[in-house]
Amino acid sequence: MNAFDAARTLLRALGADALPHPGGTLLAHLERVASRLAAWGAREELRLAGLCHAFYGTDGFAESLLPLSRRDELAAAIGPAAEELVYFYASCDREFSYPGLQESDGPFRDRFTGTTFVPTRRQRADLAELTAANELDVLQENEELRTRYGGTLSRLFTRWSPLLGEAAAEAAREVLTLRGEERQAFLRGLERGDLRAGVVSKIASFHVTFVDLGGVEGMMNIPEVSWRPFDVPGDVIAEGQELVFQVLGVDESRDRVFLSLKALEPDPMAVFARSGFGGVRTGRVTRLVPSGVIVLVADGVEAVVHRDDLDGLAPREGDELTFEVTALNLVTRRARVALR
Predict the structure, then answer these.
(1) CA pair distance 198, 211, nearest whole angstrom
(2) Which domains does the chain have, with CATH numbers?
(3) Which residues form the S1 motif domain (predicted)?
(4) Which sign, positive or negative, has the C-alpha torsion 267, 270, 274, 275?
(5) Mean pLDDT of all residues in 61-70
């Protein structure tokens, strides 16, 4: 008897074919999860873990088929490596472990023992793929659960995209992307000024940032990333990062949601102006431009010092200049300075 048949025999003996679960019985769900993983090209141990992932219960499904004191029975049926995967999945304290799973140093907490450790890259990828296979099956079988949790899971799997294989990531997008009336209802529910959690899904080569709002993708143009000087959005944000965005507007005719991070930040130039900007100060040259140099006046405030005003100086990037701020312009977003 191969490992899959041995697992099925044990599952039936423990009543998995009679336990209710979205889409029928627990056994039917487990079979679908294993089949989904196989379609994604998962190795045998991960497919076996998919078939057996509920043996010890999970943080989202309390019913267990075997107590942890009988782990050796499952290991004998499917092999130690696959059984370790089942335990790892079952032991996951989701609230603690999910937020940082995509990080190489993200901590994992075993909910059975309370132990905290940093999983390997393979462990994190296995957990992500198994979670995706499990949750996507549940949501496809239960529309109420999809409506309630689909947005949260869409953002989660976007965060985990570095861990998911291409097939798993595409399946998550296919299942969780809102369409038709459901999508239109989401768009109609957005108002200018709303604050929404979103995950940076892609920073495009043309510098537009795309954001997963939970089954609907919003976009943020480069001027809306930050008040502070930067060259490309990747200097400020990163793909997979979850942030709070302000909705600038919705164009239902073009199916677009426009977002901003900058709108949630205080204007550094206004802050600087209110603090009183007189007096002599020093600032670092941040870059050279054809007309002269750019100098950092204060956090988020820059000034152009024109070549004719440098009094023969030839500063390099990183050098400090001494100057007095003479004016601020909130339209051009520049300060005017006089060297001292």
Answers:
(1) 6
(2) 3-175 (1.10.3210.10), 180-264 (2.40.50.140), 268-339 (2.40.50.140)
(3) 193-262, 278-340
(4) positive
(5) 92
